[in-house]
Amino acid sequence: MTAAPSASLPPLDPAAAEPYYRQIYDRVRGAIASGALKPGDRLPSARALMKELGLARGTIEAAYALLTAEGYIQARGQAGTVVSPELKPRAPQPVAPPPDPATAEPSFRPDTTLPFQMGLPALDVFPRKIWARLGARCIRAMQPADMAHPSVHGLQALRAEIAAYLHLSRGVDCSPSQVFVTTGYRHTLQLVGQALFKAGDRVWLENPGYPPTREVLQHLGVVAAPVPVDADGLVVDDGLRTAPRARGAIVTPAHQAPLCVSLSLPRRLALLDWASRNKAWIVEDDYDGEFRYVSRPLPALQSLDRHGRVLYAGTFSKLLFPSLRLAYLVVPPALVPRFEQIGQAFAGGSPQLTQAIVTAFITEGHFARHIQRMRRLYAERRAATVAGLESVLGRHLRIDPQPGGMHLILRLQHRRSDRKLAARLREAGLFAEALTDWSFERDGPSALMLAFTNVDSRRSAEGLAKRMLELL
After folding, report:
1. Same structural domain for residues 172 and 284?
2. Is 0.70 surpassed by the pTM of this model?
């Protein structure tokens, strides 16, 4: 038996023609009819409702007496008043048929943890004990000032730690005032769009590229100008030919999303030159640049910028875990006042306690050690996953060689539909994304994208591959 909170009932209307007891009666009966109150649920006591609603006890009792007389509720002494168990549960309402999984739009923020799921770091090895200890310490240290509204720009201590980390690890030279803490990549992109672009502006986007980028820009009224990607990354010459006067470009130079190729140095320089000459903005999405397995991680594109045209976007979702909802944006010094203005107008601020825990995690060295450990672990898991998949599925697909990243690209043979196969895998409890869903035209070579970060061994990969084989 569960208690039904009074908040589940609609509020009373003092201007209504019906007396209060009748309004209470109607609301309880309506909640039972709709299924919000189920047989056996406990109702608030007359005393509790009297205090909450500021009514006389007799008014509450009159409503309950009428409900009891009609068989809706039962009084059970010290056990309280409950919805009559003899009432039949409300029949389920007809719902619209589910969409065809072969054509349904994929979710890029799923709340599951399926095998091969994209966007998830190795959750099984995250140092939860350390995190819990730091969290408990931060809670004990909380002062009244820490419970007020958080800064919309981010906790100052966290901004300083991010600036120091980026300087050492990614070659990004910035001050804490240039760092703006956000609640995720979409929030980051929204701030950029509100600060720098206006409706009708054109912006270069990689094709194929991360679909939520197109979605956010569309809602902002910004026009996407697709630019193809090859083995050297964004084909800058194509962008210059098709949209030379674009107001910006959003790129993933370290590991292009989704092909994982790196933007070559000549193209980096050409992109920066275009932005400087046309006073355009470049958003560098460095979502997993730390995870490179063939050499040291490449320096950020921002480290080559000499004219203040690059905004650097990073996230803790891939480095720690997604439910943190913490990311950051580094803007050129000249843009700091503009982003402070936009932040004050549109940002709500991230939870200060969460930011404090992340700050402690970085300050005490756990963050750097965790990234180093993940880089080694991902290299091992990547090799094990490739070996396991190829041993079972080698005749049906080819796995792209990639220098880094957190997922694999499986090229399908015989022109099979990657969208239909991805839908079948999800129905079977295995996650996959179709490469064609990431292209503007939703065509091109068929391929599946599978994350390897949570595949712990070759044996596990072989077991998952056997389940995939049944669906091919």
Report:
1. yes
2. yes
Bridge-based pairing state of the strands 81-83 and 327-330: unpaired
**Same domain (yes/no): 143, 230:** yes
Instruction: Say how far apart CA 83 and CA 29 lie, in whole Å.
Output: 10
Give me the domain span that covers residue 50.
6-83
In a domain, 119, yes or no: no
Of 31, 49, 83, the last residue of a domain is 83
Regarding whether 244 and 324 lie in a shared domain, the answer is: yes
Q: Which residues are registered as beta bridge partners of 233? A: 230
The enclosing domain of 36 has a CATH number of: 1.10.10.10
Regarding whether 351 and 394 lie in a shared domain, the answer is: no
Angstrom distances, CA of residue 33 to CA of 4, 13, 39, 64, 87: 14, 20, 11, 16, 10
Q: Compute how many other C-beta atoms are within 10 angstroms of the C-beta atom of residue 228.
A: 14
Q: How confident is the model at residue 102 (pLDDT cuts 50, 70, 90)?
A: very low
pLDDT category, 58, cuts 50, 70, 90? confident
- From the list 239, 232, 236, the residue with the least C-alpha distance to 203 is 239
What integer best gives the mean pLDDT of the chain?
Answer: 90
Q: Which of 335, 223, 218, 336 is nearest to 279 (CA)?
A: 335
Which residues lie closer than 8 Å to 174 by C-beta, 6 or more apart?
A: 163, 166, 167, 312, 330
Tens-digit pLDDT profile for residues 16-30:
778 888 888 888 888
Instruction: Give the total number of structural domains in the chain.
Output: 3
Question: What share of residues in the chain are helix, strand, coil (percent, to 5)?
Answer: 45, 15, 40
Whether the predicted pLDDT of 452 surpasses 50: yes
